[in-house]
Design a protein that fits this description.
Glutaredoxin, alpha/beta, 2 domains, 6-stranded mixed sheet, single chain, rod-shaped, 6 strands
């Protein structure tokens, strides 16, 4: 039976020769309509996927923007504004390279004449030469010394974890005035123990400070003191 004139189903090409001219025209129109609907459905699916992807990307961008705003809303602390209880500062320190030992006024020393070779920054289990450590201070390092009679075991590990990973020296020093003393060029604080919050304050204020004569100069490639472990 020939299809009705309002039948929109596509007609196979082999069957069209048996159709009237009108039926063939209707068949071609039905094929075009079907193809158009298929294309429209495909475009609709693509738009839906695109909108969903854009929404996810938009949310990610918003998250990044919000994060940046929150982060930028927390202004960096100016080292000059950090006030540290018990901080001692020393001016007019010389920085001449000398041979032999130096009689320093402070213990540990915080600057002054020093050896031509700096002490390689790191963690030491034995006392290190003052003259080489002072040269490291000249390069902007901080020097954390501890009394081995007061700090050992887990406390020593805690202290080691608190020391900056670069531009720092950690070493024992007998008969300190406090369990831990942290020093930089021209500055020093005696700490009550390994968990004293003033240690981080001191690092924030003086690590790689412009108050050092040569901040950023090398802290490796020179002298390893005795007992270097890291």
């Amino acid at each position: 039976m020939a299809p009705r004139d309002n039948d929109s189903s596509p007609i196979p090409p082999s069957a069209r020769k048996d159709l009237t001219v009108k039926q063939q025209r209707d068949a071609r129109r039905a094929e075009k309509v079907a193809a158009l609907k298929k294309q429209q459905e495909k475009e609709k699916r693509n738009r839906t996927i695109g909108i969903a992807a854009a929404s996810v990307a938009g949310l990610a961008v918003i998250g990044l923007v919000v994060g940046a705003v929150v982060t930028s809303g927390e202004p960096a602390v100016d080292p000059a504004d950090i006030v540290i209880e018990g901080l001692e500062e020393f001016d007019g320190l010389s920085s001449t390279h000398v041979n032999g030992t130096v009689d320093y006024e402070q213990s540990p020393p915080v600057g002054g004449d020093h050896a031509a070779l700096w002490l390689n920054c790191g963690v030491y289990e034995e006392e290190v030469p003052n003259e080489n450590a002072v040269h490291s201070l000249e390069h902007g390092a901080v020097w954390v010394t501890y009394d081995p009679a007061a700090v050992s075991g887990d406390d020593l590990q805690t202290l080691t974890d608190e020391v900056p990973s670069t531009y720092s020296v950690l070493s024992p020093m007998a008969d300190l005035s406090a369990p831990v003393v942290i020093s930089a060029w021209g500055a020093q604080v005696a700490l009550d123990g390994v968990d004293d919050p003033r240690m981080q304050q001191f690092v924030d204020k003086f690590w790689q400070s412009g108050d050092a004569p040569e901040p950023g100069a090398a802290c490796t490639g020179a002298l390893d003191g005795p007992g270097k472990v890291a």
